[in-house]
Amino acid sequence: MAEGREHREYRMEELAREAGITVRTVRFYRERGLIRPPRREGRIAWYDDAHLARLRTIAALLERGHTLNGIADLAAAIETGRNVGEVLGLGEPTEETPVRLSPEELADYFEGEVTAENLTAALDLGYLATDGAVIVHISRRLLDVSAALVREGVPLAAVLDAGRDVRRHADALAEIFVGILRARAGTAMTDPAKLRPLAQSVVAAELSMALDRRLRPEPAARPADPDPAPDPDT
Fold this sequence. Notes:
Layout lengths: L8 E2 L1 H8 L3 H10 L6 E3 L2 E5 H15 L4 H13 L3 H5 L10 E3 L1 H7 L6 H10 L2 E4 L2 E4 L2 H12 L4 H28 L8 H24 L19
Antiparallel strand pairs: 1-3, 2-3, 4-6, 5-6
């Protein structure tokens, strides 16, 4: 280990021992692009705690049935995703509680559904962001609901497609209420803190009634009247 460094660094042999794998496996992962190249100091290659965390994540995902090709695709999707500052906006007010997850914890939430395609879609939607080696979901509520839908048999890809549609309609609804706010400039309604719960209540009530209308059983069709018997005198 290099002395006097801010973060611990490892020679390849030390890294392999800490990760519980062989030096040959470390070389293989590096050649496959599963871990980034080490920092070089002359002929010495130094690995750090980020390399160790990635190796432990690879091991955990392999135990969960992911293939190395799949893990490489997941890693590429994560590395091209936006960071949490870009997604959440520094200092931006929100009622949502972000959730920090390791890649293997995310895989446990959506067992068998965390593919590179689904991860890319979630990153594009802004549901997920990166913070170093950690994945951040922007909303505890959305994470829990999405996981519940997947447990009920809804494919994660369908959940994400629905989320994209809901986002579009939610933006339109928000614009309606922001329009009310702007039109009432100089009144008590100019306070967004007062508008937010009222707008949420209206949308929740309307959505509930819309679901009632669409989930209500269709009325049984009335049987057609039988044709009258022919008049024998005609």
